[in-house]
Amino acid sequence: MTVLNRKLRRQVRESRGLLASIVLILSIGVACLVGMLATWRNLDRALDDYYARCRMADFWVDLDRAPVPDLREACAVDGVAEVRDRLQFPVTVEGLDGERQVEGLALSLPAAPHPVLCGVQLVRGHWFDGESRDEVIVSDKFAEARGLGPGDEVDLVLDGRQERFRVVGTALSAEHVYLLPPGDLAPDPRHYGLFFLPRQRLAELIDREGAANSIVGRFTPEGAREPEAVLDDLARRLDDFGVFAAYPRADQPSHVAISSEMKQLRSFAVWLSTIFFSVAVLVLVVLMSRTVQRERTLIGTLLALGTPRRTLALHYVGLGLVVGLAGAAVGCVLGQWISSAVTTMYRGFFEFPALDPRLYPDLLALATACAAGCAGLGALVGMRAVFRLRPAEAMRPAPPERGGRVWLERVAWLWARLPARSRMVLRNLGRHPMRTSVGVLASALACAIVVLALGWVDVLDDMLAFQFDKVQRADVSLTLADERDRAAVDELRRLPGVLHAEGSSAVACVFEHGARRRRGAVQGIHRDAELTVPHDAAGARVPVPATGLLMTERLAAQLGVGEGDVLTVREVAGERRQVEARIARVVQTYIGMAVYADFDWLERALGRTGTVAQVDLATGRDPAERRALLAELRRRPGVQAVQETSFVQRRVEEEFLDLMYVFLGVYVLFAGAILLGTVLTVSWIAVAERQREIATLRAIGWRAREVARSFLLESLAVTLAGAVPGLLLGQGLMDLMARSFQNDLFSMPSRIAGATFVHALGLAVLFVLVAHALVGRSIRRLSWVAELGAKE
Amino acid sequence: MSPSAKVLLELRGVHKSFRMGELTVEVLRGVDLEVYAGEIAVVLGYSGSGKTTLLNIMGALDRPSAGTVLFEGWDLGLLDEGALAEHRRQNLGFVFQLYNLIPTLTAAENVAVATEGVEGGPMDPREALGLVGLAERGDSFPAQLSGGEQQRVAIARAIARKPELLLCDEVTGALDSTTGRLVLETLVRLNERIGSTIVMITHARPIAALADRVLRIDSGRIVEVRANERRAAVAEVDW
Fold first, then answer.
1. Which of B91, B102, B202 would best serve as a mutation to test chain A binding (most A beta carbons within 10 A)?
2. Fewer CB within 10 Å, N or C, chain B?
3. Hey, which residues 176-235 in chain B have their CB within 8 Å of chain A?
4. What is the rounded radius of gyration, in angstroms, for the C-alpha atoms of chain A?
5. How far is CA B188 from the centre of its chain?
């Protein structure tokens, strides 16, 4: 071992506390990169494998009803490689207890187990053997939640007909990795499942023999390049069969859910690790510049003795590399643990046949290279100043540091009122602009991360409050199996426990504005409706206009329309009438892309007569009465689905809040690591540099805690200076995130509550206090009496 | 100084030893001494004789390994660290060989940092600087002052709190003789004008002529205590 290497080893040992704080920051950067990217890869592999095994489709078209031969002919368009027509139908399950109606989706499968687009993977049991007419394959998660298995029986109600089925197997379906019940915000495997039936059997039950109401297909490579154009063409050809929706995989609900999660993982991995690596580089610059300044005369002497600059430079870069490699080692272990934990957590969230955490050596190598590169860079930049000196100059001690005035002194009346100890704090900050800037930056980034993490709770609260307290105010919403007249609403209004009932219509349609077309639905509501109340983005109630539409902002943006513009609304089923409608106002919804119109105007415009598709109920608060009412509603013929708003909200909280709190906790700890690492490094360096000052203050009667308080004030001043831009940055990032994660199914608000900023600030201060518990200990342990007479 | 004068500080049988690896070095070996109110006492000793350790114990910067230190009759050994700090803050002033000024504070602020929160009406920093002849340099930073000026700022800092006892460690050690003389004149003037009790520790024998009493320390023991018949003027002293 060379002498310089021995010196390096001793230096690492002596400065282990300081180096550990930088290792902490680097290791979190590495952990973010490894943890999140490995999780992303785990999901990506599992998804690819699953999609390949189940032959996942590239696009979906939901229809009213189409004869199979006509359908196949219409699907022969350029860009479409293959299609599969099938049947799907909503189903209710009888005889199973639950807090809400047990529902599901019945889907057709071929009678024999041959590979088809959007096929399934059997988990338990076997395929239909064709010997009896009561065979059903049930989605595995529903079966698990309900304790069902092969041989068990379930009673399914399809199109008003109740039949008993025997479970022959349980299966997973790649197009339902994330299965949301209609109108819900979270999966609910206990109350919503998939029921696969042989095609012919399902056709008989729902009276669709020789017909299909769903198409799944794959694009040709050329078609895949222009999926929107191909789908548009296909939808036009299928128009006669009533196209409710036509969407590519990118808009398929389950795929949207998992791909947004993956997108979030990947972008968080990149920007979080970038933050940590950047802070680590800057903190290392501070540390290395202090180290080489302290060893300035030694460096000068070694240079004078003929040691090559490169050898010396490598020695100091070596110190950086030790930090980098230590950070990489700790970070890789932590990252792998995070990846395993998060991947395991995702197993409960998404339905995969196999989702296992794996080790990715290339990822570990990449993260190690990043950490070592950042540490080396920090070391190089930090030592630059001393290495520029000539040996003779370097051998002389550095000139004593000068006290200087700070800009605040220009505000004379304020400065004159500050005690000397506060002036000392401010001048110390002004004397080390690099250090202060690093502290401010670290604080800003840490506060931004905390705001972003805590802000998710506000976003979810805002979203639920907007959607369920302002817009969808019904206690119970009923979806009717067939459209009924208004008498159905009066009938429901008379049920015990119902305080108020409002019917609304739903018209599936195509909106056309110039060359832009979007499929959706118009909900016809009464102008005095109190249970469905459109609101604008500012949260103000928007009255239903006598004519024209209220359109959700996202859909209006997709169609390129604004208030006052006129577009074409064309029914996709029934009479297929069309009407020119003016956009009266643009409104806000966070779930789905609602379009509202006056019930009577919509009926008149489309030549309909008082058809009600959904009924909203306001109910009494008595739980027993509510239970009896729900039971009655579920028993009523013609009621397809009963949705209890409070249950939907509760499910969201149960499903998302735990996951959110885990991420929130992790991000807050990450932010804490930035602040801890930076404050510790900067403060410990300051303590080391100002030992004589500390000794003098102690000698003239300052207690250790008073000295420590002065260092704490410096850190707090820096942290607060960074906190203000940090809090704003957090809000900016939340806005950015809200914009990047919105899709046809959801959008999210991005307003962060004032209290969250206060909490973020409080947490930042808390982390500084934790760091200063250690700094204070160093000050108490300082042999200050010896420092009084020590030469500088 | 007459034996009837008030004893401000008293050391009885003070020992101080340090562990240096496996060795125990006994620096003070049973020191007995008194410091009387209003006097200038010079502790004279060679390098390594234990004089700085003695000053540290007199100034409550360190605790003796054995023996008793009484300040105005109070046993300092009974005080905890916080009370000792308060004792230093309220009763003592220090002037160090290397000035120990805080580089980020101006001269006036260096004085103010010692007087903030001190009871008993400390001097205004400008007044203290005036006493050491630096009234005009209050806004200068230490790096803008000469060594002598820095040392006088340190003296101003020490006396601004109107301490009972001023402890000076080799105050001229880092200064040339002209500047050193200026510093000594300042100290003598303070003793004469405001009655500050001053203990100066030095290895420079001629400075002993300025004192009321001279205590010679050697190998950790006070080997000689003598009273000067008269205090020499600073101008008469040469070193």
1. B102
2. C
3. none
4. 33
5. 13
- Measured between beta carbons, the chain B residues lying within 8 angstroms of A700 are 88-89, 93-94, 113-114, 157-158
Q: How far is A788 from chain B (nearest CA, A)?
A: 7
Q: Which of A613, A593, A588 is nearest to A603 (CA)?
A: A613
**pLDDT, tens digit (0-9, with 9 covering 90-100), for A675-732:** 999 999 999 999 988 898 999 999 988 999 999 999 999 999 999 999 999 999 999 9
Write out the two tokens for B47. Answer: 């390098």
Q: Which of A428, A695, A703 sits opposite B85 (nearest CB)?
A: A703
Residue B108's closest chain A neighbor by CA? A420
What are the residues whose beta carbons fall under 8 Å from the beta carbon of A754, sequence distance 6 or more?
none
Between residues 699 and 728 of chain A, which touch chain B (CB distance below 8 Å)?
699-704
Q: What are the residues whose beta carbons fall under 8 Å from the beta carbon of A485, sequence distance 6 or more?
A: A609, A610, A611, A612
Specify the residue for token string 């206690």: A475
Cβ contact A788–B100 (<8 Å): yes
Of B96, B107, B101, B99, which Cα lies nearest the Cα of B141?
A: B107
Q: Which two tokens stand for residue A165?
A: 């089925």
Q: How far apart are CA A562 and CA B239, in angstroms?
A: 94
- In whole angstroms, what is the distance from residue A722 CA to residue A442 CA? 7
Contact with chain A for residue B164, Cβ under 8 A:
no
A782 touches B: beta carbon within 8 Å: no
Of the candidates B90, B103, B114, the beta carbon closest to that of A400 is on B103
Q: What is the ipTM of this complex?
A: 0.83
Calpha distance B9→B35 (Å, rounded):
5
Q: Please check whether residue A39 is in contact with residue A342, taking contact to mean a CB–CB distance below 8 angstroms.
A: yes
DSSP codes of every residue in B179-190: HHHHHHHHHHHH
**pLDDT by 10-residue block (mean), chain B, 239 residues:** 76 92 88 95 92 92 94 93 90 87 90 82 88 89 89 90 89 81 87 89 91 94 94 86
B62 touches chain A (CB under 8 A): yes
Half-sphere exposure of A109 (CA within 13 A, CB side): 30
CB-based contact, B76 to chain A, within 8 Å: no
The answer to whether the CB atoms of B90 and A701 lie below 8 A apart is yes
**Is A781 an 8 Å CB contact of chain B?**
no
CA A789, CA A692: separation in Å to the nearest integer?
A: 8
Q: Does A431 touch chain B (CB under 8 A)?
A: yes
Residues of A in contact with B94 (CB under 8 A): 699-700
| Chain A residues lying within 8 Å of B113, measured CB to CB | 420-421, 424, 697, 700
Distance between CA atoms of residues A398 and B101, nearest Å: 18
Chain B CB within 8 Å of residue A785 CB? yes
Q: At what angle do helices A691-699 and A658-689 cross, to 10 degrees?
A: 80
Closest CA to A730 of A453, A460, A462: A453
pLDDT level of residue A401 (50, 70, 90 thresholds): low
Determine, for residues A421 and B94 on separate chains, whether the beta-carbon distance falls below 8 Å: no
CA distances from A71 to A91, A239, A517, A768 (A): 24, 11, 22, 67
Rounded to whole angstroms, how far apart are CA atoms A520 and A554? 12
Q: Dig out the tokens for A248 from the structure.
A: 């590519």
Are the beta carbons of A403 and B81 separated by less than 8 Å?
A: no
C-alpha distances (whole Å) from A426 to each of A44, A175, A407, A412, A746 are 51, 61, 10, 14, 48
The residue count of chain B comes to 239
Q: What local confidence, expressed as pLDDT, does residue B1 receive?
A: 53
Core vs surface per residue A724-754: b (16+ CB within 10 A) or e:
ebbbebbbebbeebbeebbebbbbbbbebee
Q: Residue A598 has which token pair?
A: 């006056």
Whether the per-residue pLDDT at A574 is higher than 80: the answer is: no
Question: How big is the A-B interface in CB pairs under 8 Å?
Answer: 95
